[in-house]
Amino acid sequence: MAARAIWTGAIKIAEVVCPVKMYTAATTSERIALHMVNRKTGHRLRRVYVDEKTNKPVEQDDQVKGYETHEGSYVVLEPEEIAAAVPDSDKVLSVDRFIACGQIDQTYFDRPYYLLPASEATEETFVLIREALRNRKAAAIAHTVLFRRLRPVLIRAHHKGLIATTLNFDYEVRSSREAFSGISKQKIDPEMLELAQHILKTKAGKFEPDKFEDRYEEALTEMVRAKIEGRKIIPFRTPEPTKANDLLEALRLSAGGKKEQDHKKAPKKAASAKDSSTKASKRAPARRKAS
């Protein structure tokens, strides 16, 4: 890979050890970068930490982390004390157990990383692990120290390699039952459900991430370009939410019901050439106006 490995270590399954390299699978480096600047001078700003009581800047050597025990009172943690709390890294993805891919709760997914064999000499072991996971439709749960923290990691077969996804801890994930507790029960009209399912069927497709549009990024880029060129910025309009009493009609229109009704109402007898010519001439201005 052209990118630089962010971590080098090994996967350990019982007595099987396979050296690997880890690469970032997702990055935000291509996003447009904005900086804080002085509106009056146009100069870039730099962040300065200020003592909230004295209102004076604090030098970097005097900046330490602290835990608030009660309002306004902190326990200071020195850098070496924090460093001592970081688990020792043995650079090993130690596999604890295997689970079926269908059991994975994706709410716990954090960030994905690609795993590749560290060298040609380790490719056979790497491919063996990959194919064993693929054939069993299983994923490995491992632990290792990443970015100064002991992290649980999910390892799965992914195309020709492996993908390692760091996982959130249980205390970091909100209960779905608690999150959805405010949603009341609703009795859905059978016709509306049938129309909604029809819309889903007609909109069925494949997972094509290259078709995704980052509209915020595009809008931000266009706004910057317009500013540079001195053009007027036209804001996007947010669509109005569908009202409850308009939901059935919106579903019918989305499912093409209006077109079908118009087709059924169309006269079966063909119009004469003269009538067709007259109607066409009446419709022409409307088309030109619309264009």
Secondary structure blueprint with pairings:
Elements: E1 7-13, E2 16-24, E3 65-70, E4 73-77, H1 79-85, E5 92-100, E6 109-117, H2 123-136, E7 138-146, E8 149-158, E9 161-167, H3 176-179, H4 190-202, H5 215-229, H6 247-254, H7 257-265, H8 273-290
Parallel strand pairs: 1-5
Antiparallel strand pairs: 1-2, 2-6, 3-4, 5-7, 6-9, 7-8, 8-9
Briefly, what is this?
It is built from 8 helices and 9 strands. It is of the alpha+beta class and 291 residues long. The strands form 2 sheets. Strands 1-2-6-9-8-7-5 form a 7-stranded mixed beta barrel.
Query: N-to-C SSE series?
Result: EEEEHEEHEEEHHHHHH
- Runs in which pLDDT lies below 50 for 5 or more consecutive residues are 258-291
Fraction in helix: 25-40%
Oligomer: single chain
Structural class, judged by helices and strands? Answer: alpha+beta
C-alpha end-to-end distance? 49 Å
The biggest sheet, with number of strands, parallel, antiparallel or mixed sense and barrel status, is: 7 strands, mixed, barrel
Percent strand: 15-25%
Q: Tell me the overall shape.
A: extended
Q: How many strand elements?
A: 9
The count of helical stretches stands at 8
Radius of gyration, in angstroms, nearest whole number: 30 Å
| Average pLDDT figure | 82
- Lateral arrangement of strands in the main beta sheet: 1-2-6-9-8-7-5
Task: Please characterize this protein's 3D structure.
- The protein has helices at residues 79-85, 123-136, 176-179, 190-202, 215-229, 247-254, 257-265, 273-290, and strands spanning 7-13, 16-24, 65-70, 73-77, 92-100, 109-117, 138-146, 149-158, 161-167.
- The protein is of the alpha+beta class and 291 residues long.
- The chain has a seven-stranded mixed β-barrel.
- The longest helix has 18 residues, at 273-290.
- Mean pLDDT is 82; it is low at 258-291.
